[in-house]
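Example record used in the benchmark description.
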Amino acid sequence: MSLPAALQTQLRCFSGRRVAWVLCLYSALLFPAHFFVSCSGSSALACDAILLAALSVLFCLISPAKTPGRFDPAMFALGLFLLHALAMH
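Model output (structure tokens):
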């Protein structure tokens, strides 16, 4: 059983690296919320940052090995996680 041609084209154009950058952007947009929520809300945001960083690493791993800057989004996401951890109160 083969996939339809339209689906094959969509899967071929899928970029895990682009999805990882979107997850990093989402994590960066969540950062200022630490200063407006309670302590339990701040720890929940930090847990979200862990999840987003892990997903970024996974999406970077599924991108082709010869992609230049393959792990740039993952490193950025881990840096954002450190910022989230420092801002947690």
